[in-house]
Amino acid sequence: MTFFSAHAQPVPVSVLSAGVTPQQNIPDHIDPRTRLSGNWGGMRNRLLAWGIDIRISDTNELWSTPVGGAQASSNYIGSTAVEMVTDLHVLTGLPLGTFDISAMEIRGRPFSNTPLYVFNQTSNIEADDNGRLYELWYSQKFMGERLAFRIGKLDLGHDFMVSSVGLNFLNASFSWPIMPDNDLYDQGPVSPVATPAIRLRYTLSPHWNFLFAAADDNPVGGPFINAKDPWNQNRDPGGTRFSFSTGALFFGEVQYRRTLYGRQGTYKLGGYLDTGRFPDQSDFNKSHETNWAIYGIADQTLQHFGRITELDAFVRGNWTAETDRNQIVYAVDGGFALKGAFGRADDVLGLGAGLGAASPCLAWADRRAGLPGQGTEYHLELTYQAQVTPWMIIQPDIQGIVAPSGGVRDSKGERVRNEATFGLHGNVTF
After folding, report:
1. The whole model's pTM is what?
2. Which sign does the torsion angle of CA 388, 391, 393, 394 carry?
3. Mean pLDDT value of segment 327-346
4. What does the pLDDT read at residue 25?
5. Alpha-carbon gap, residue 105 to 210, rounded angstroms
6. Vertex 221, ends 219 and 226: CA angle to 5°?
7. Residue 142's Cα: distance from chain center in Å?
8. Are 391 and 25 within 8 A, CB to CB?
9. C-alpha distances in angstroms, 225 versus 93, 177, 216, 281?
10. What pLDDT score was predicted for residue 27?
């Protein structure tokens, strides 16, 4: 028995606000060199004076898998993101917070489910071809900005389970982990399917942050398993549906930051609890109530080399004991990122690897059906992020997948082979 989940598409934090409020992130003026379209004849600076920041980013990728998978394939995918952030205090003079609205246009054909048959997406912009509302929220700070409150349609992947070093990679597993991507409704509360939620962030000191969120666990209201539309995104192609029919999803995370010997580190512990119902991995006609998982993340600077170059590393682990209702029961990933590679201040050279282990209940059901039992998938990525101009990034990428989806058969009944995938990513800030 083989169960393929859809895969989430976290938007890179360099594209949208990534959970940073405009009070922290809206610049005083626009440097026209950092935007392809410049300063719009001074209009952007005038908007900033009113507290309005408009951000536009376009991403295009070419991918080829000449070796492995169900068959050789070449694919194009792309995404355009538009966001308007408004500081209502600056705009109105009243003691108000921040309003944010964003949308995205997604194009190209997803290819990670077939013909690659992998647990998670090859690219973190891969999604169904739609134009949709993304985030819509209001944020306010209290207690001398120690407490930040946010409510609306949120992408919780900006705040929870995220490694800042992992975001340098293109494989979606390094941004949004394999476990929630396969184990939660709609692949979890990440783009392009944001969810109605409330998020709180309390800053105790420069070293300690505490985060909590309560959200709807199934914003499109679809079934957990949808054979006709496995990604469930086409059930709500415009991103305007708000469903509260399944259950509640709670996230909590503790963050600790520390600088030792001039090397900064950030360490996170967290978990999630979902009150909805989840299909049994050995019999999809049965279901179980509630689900949970815990995780830990470490981002650490290892060494500085001169003025602009440093070596950073990350490691992240996810685990759950609920093997009867989760496709993935544990996952580990990690990697290294050399910032300022080859003397270029804004370039990044990265090497990452990870694994995701299928539930023994699912493997038992596969063997009972006469199929190979799903085991562990391993992924590896080598990438180079080149800042060609202040407004354009080009990123060649090589990925390898060993035992796709833990060793499954394709639609023809043949075992999916190990894969080598080559990609070229380009991002332009307008």
Report:
1. 0.92
2. negative
3. 97
4. 64
5. 33
6. 115
7. 28
8. no
9. 49, 20, 18, 11
10. 76
